[in-house]
Each structure stands twice: as structure tokens, then as C-alpha cells.
Amino acid sequence: MIWTRTPGQAATISIDPDGRGEHMNVLITGGCGFIGTNLIRYLRGMGECRIRVLDNLSVGNRDDLAKVASFAELGPKGSVGLPTTSEVQLLAGDILDKSIVDRALRQMDVVVHLAANTGVQPSVENPELDCMTNVVGTLNCLEGARQNGVKRFVFASSGAPVGECHPPIHEEMVPHPVSPYGASKLAGEGYCSAYYRCFALGTVALRFSNVYGPGSTHKASVVAKFIKKALKGEPVEIYGNGDQTRDFLFIDDLVRAILLAATRDGAAGELFQIATNKETTVADLAKRLVLIVRETTGKEMQLTAGERRSGDVMRNFSDTSKAARLLGWQAETSLDDGLKKTINYFVNGAVS
Does residue 5 have a pLDDT over 70? Predict the structure, then answer.
């Protein structure tokens, strides 16, 4: 893999695997979603790359994919040729279907595994579904990657496996998940470790913090939810008194981390916290949004207090020194700048 860095600057990524003038073939599971479409946009902007998407279209859909790339959809059966460098290939299917997973992985170099049941509350409401998607589905993708000779497998995890702790979260902390979601993501991390050590599959697990940004129309996480309600003139509910803290990461910074994990020598077999290393209360986030929404739209954001939610971690931010050391990565977007870009997206339908 090729990775270059200019002293004093952020890392840059080449998508020419092994430096042989070949295109990198990338499968993105859940590629029609928020992170997947931003990743596709970034890949297509930086150079020629063959991209295939496997998505069950339960959250992101064909229209979302069409906003970032032209695509050709594969039929449910038959041979699978490589996608072109000018057109993304879409395979509609579920990661619980082993035959679909195997088809999706044929001739791929890298897998970015984003498909998942996301969020604490859905996992509390339906732990079995959370387990099937996040554990069995991930195992299907790992096994398919092994059978198809994939070089690098990037797994999207979160800070949820660690659970209640004294932050900042770092990679050596003993996990104590407090929600089924945290437990299922911990299992995924464990299987990635096992497949690296047993089968030499180049797995990299990334613990994403709270990701936000343009394209997050379908997300139910705090930033997107607050913005959507504010723009509709609906009250914005803060659980408890808003003293719970999160580490809010802008999507562009996350995408750079994913690409470095997919291409950087020495990353295989590792686990990384991908965050800003900054702790922000939900109450402070709301105050920032009140000001930016007012400046951008002239609307007043109404805040209300609600009860705390079961399974919520009270403090959450991460130490990102390992990612800086081994990936050459750090977050670069300030919270205010990221929020402005996100609100502009929701107001105008595009990043302004």
C-alpha cells in the first residue's frame, strides 16, 4: 500500500495498492448510508478506484447513492464482473445472506464494513436483531473476505464496547459494554482480531466517535436529530440535564481515517480510537446549535428537558494518540465549523 506524508501536514493517501499502477477494488458494505456515500465521494475525488456497494437499502437507498455517483445495479444471480472506474456497482442484499456476501467480495482488495444495526436504543429494544446483524453479519463478511483473498478489512466499531469508564477512552481499556449495541460491536472487534491472528486477514477495527456532517439525513444521532427538529420548528429534547458528554467527529475527518486504515502499512491487526480527543456536553452542543441555527436561518431553536435513557454512557471522549502515531491521522475540523457545514447542508441540500 502507498502512504505519504509531508512533514508538518496531515497524512495523504494513495489508492494504488502496492505501488504497481493498479486500481484498488473496494467493497463498501452499507455503502448507501451516510458514511458510505461520503466515502464514495472522497474516493472518486482523489483518483481512479473500482467501487462495489453491498447494501440492503433499509436506511440509505439508491437515490442517496445516485447523489454521489452513477451506478450500475447487479442482478440477484449470475457472474460478477469488476465495476468500472467511472461507475459504482451496487449489489442490493443483506450481510446475513452468505451467498450475497460471497458475490459481493469477489475480486475485491479492500472491504470497508459499515453495514450494521446502529445505536444504543434500537439495540435495547431488539437485542436479538442487533446481535444477528452486528455479530453474525460481520462474521459472514470476515469469512467471505478470507475465502476471496481480500487484503484489508476495515471494521466500523464505536466507543460503546468500553462502556462506563473514566475517559478519555483508549485502546488498552478493558471493555465493559452497558448496552447490547456495545456488546455486539465488541464481538465484531474480537472476530477481527481472531481472523487476523488465525488467518492473516488484514483486519483493522476503528472505534468511531459520534460522527456528524453533510449527508446525515437518515441519521437519528444527536446532531442530525437536533438540526432536523430545529429546522422544522419542533422542540429539541435533551435527555436529563444535558451533562452527558460526547466526542463529535466531522465526517471528512472520519473518511480520511478509514482510507488510512485501508492503505497504511502496519495498521493490520490493530484497533484505533477515531475521534477528536475533545469532550463536549450535549447541553453545550445544543447552545452552539442555537446560535448557528439563528445565524443561518433566523429561527429560534426550542430546548426541552426529558428523562435520561437506559443504556446511555454519561462520559465519552477518546485518546487518539495511537491513530496519530500509527496512521498519521488526527481530526482537523472544529466543532463550530463542522456544525455550520452540516446545517448548511440541511438548509440548502448540499454542502455550501
Answer: no
CB under 8 Å to 265, separation ≥6 — which residues? 1, 3
pLDDT tens sequence across 283-318: 999 999 999 999 999 999 999 988 777 666 678 889
DSSP-derived 3-state class of residue 331: coil
Mean of the per-residue pLDDT values of the chain: 90
Q: Give the other-Cβ count within 10 Å of 111's Cβ.
A: 31
Whether residue 195 contacts residue 201, with contact meaning beta carbons closer than 8 Å, is answered with: yes
d(Cα 269, Cα 288) in Å, to the nearest integer? 38
Q: List the catalytic residue out of 42, 181, 195, 196.
A: 181
Please give the pLDDT value at position 22. 64
Taking the alpha carbons of 68, 111, 335, 158 in that order, is the dihedral positive or negative?
A: positive
Q: What is the pLDDT of residue 16?
A: 56
227's CB contacts (< 8 A; 6+ apart) are 289, 293, 342, 343, 346
pTM of the model: 0.90
* pLDDT of 15 strictly over 60: no
Q: Please say if 345 is a catalytic residue.
A: no
SS3 236: strand
Closest of 81, 89, 92 to residue 115, by C-alpha = 92
3-state secondary structure of 208: strand
Exposed e or buried b per residue across 47-62, where buried means at least 16 C-beta atoms within 10 angstroms of its C-beta: eebbbbbbbbeebbee
Residue whose entry in the numeric block shows the C-alpha cell 436561518? 297
